[in-house]
Amino acid sequence: MKKIYFIVIFLLGGIQYVYSQNTRLDSIRQEKTILDSLFLAETENVESTQKPKVLHAEPLYIDLIRDLGARKGEKEWNVGMGMTDKRGFDEYETLIEYEWAPIDRLGLEVELPLTVYSSRGQLPTTLERPSNRLESIKVAGQWSFLVSEKAKTSLALGYIHEFELADLNQWGNEKLYRGNVFNPFFVAAKRWGRNFHTLIYTGPRIIREFDHATETVFDINTSFHYMISGTRNFLGIEINKEIQDGKFSAVLRPQMRVSVADNLLIGIVSGIPINRETQGLSSFLRIIYEPGHKPYR
Fold first, then answer.
1. Whether residue 213 sits in one domain with residue 74
2. Over the chain, what is the mean pLDDT?
3. Which of 54, 92, 128, 240 falls 20 to 30 Å from 193 in CA-CA distance?
4. What are phi and psi of 124, to 5 degrees?
């Protein structure tokens, strides 16, 4: 009789433990759902005067001109810093850019990219280190022509124009303005459920420097991200692919974004080239500041 009594107590205790664990898991799931709902609502809830918008994770290395489905008044400052091993010398890049939305679904951007090179000992005779330069004055626009809340999909067309500048050591000795880069592009993004994001960014870059033959490079940039529940943080990978003169090259860029404040985010990117003959590993840091950003409460 005592054995039966202890068995019953043991079974009841086990049932109670399993029930409490299930209740705890349900509470955690419910809390995550609420957090996700609040965060998605920050982006997607529409006031009577606003157009719909779908939340998408934006790649960190080749970033967008502005959020897809941008709303009037949105703005953002970016500062980027990176280093690439060029097999004989190091390439240091830095950029500062400002992007804003003057009207709904139209994003504009101005960017100044600077590249500096540093030798590591004596270079091989077959290799020449480029000169330091302010690469260009870059201006761009992006129009989101489709925003589907039901399909969680956004489509956009854009254009980047770069006014290429002479090497820094040639300023004053030759023409400052050395050519143009014409870059129309197309963007398609989709969110799968609450957390998974995919995006493709593609288009030709037509490089036309004065007194030089025109070059064309076709870019195909794809990305996949997982956004952590209830946050703006994500983990993912961006794959930057180029086709030039029939040759294909690609760089894998694992990355993460961390929110350190409501209006301040930091992106960390590493670069792993598929073809290691001309360049090695790279790293890149992007600081994103959104003045006037007001979180959902």
1. yes
2. 84
3. 240
4. -60, 155
> Considering the entire predicted model, what is its pTM?
0.82
Residues 24 and 78 in one domain: no
What's the average model confidence in pLDDT over 246-261?
Answer: 94
Q: Kindly state whether residues 131 and 257 are assigned to the same domain.
A: yes
Q: Are residues 10 and 147 in the same domain?
A: no
Residue 121: DSSP 8-state: S
Q: Is residue 296 part of a domain?
A: no
Does any domain span residue 128? yes
Confidence of residue 47 (pLDDT cuts 50, 70, 90): low
Q: Which two tokens stand for residue 146?
A: 């489709």
In this prediction, residue 297 has a pLDDT band, given cuts at 50, 70 and 90, of very low
8 Å CB contact between 158 and 65: yes
**What burial class does residue 49 get, using C-beta atoms within 10 Å of its C-beta: 0-12 exposed, 13-18 middle, 19+ buried?**
exposed
Give the Cβ contact number of residue 187 at 10 Å.
22
Does residue 25 have a pLDDT over 60? Answer: no
Is there a domain that residue 297 lies in?
Answer: no
**Cα–Cα separations (whole angstroms), residue 243 to 185, 196, 201, 248, 251:** 15, 28, 14, 5, 12
State whether 54 and 18 are in the same domain: no
Burial of 7 (0-12, 13-18, 19+ CB in 10 A): exposed
- CA separation for the pair 75, 125 (Å, rounded): 47
One domain for residues 58 and 3: no
Greater model confidence, 66 or 121: 66
Both 105 and 206 in one domain: the answer is yes
Within-domain flag for 30 = yes
pLDDT in tens, 59-79: 999 999 999 999 999 999 999
| CA 145 to each of CA 53, 105, 150, 155, 187: distance values in angstroms, whole numbers, following the listed order | 12, 8, 16, 6, 10
Distance CA 89, CA 93 (A): 13
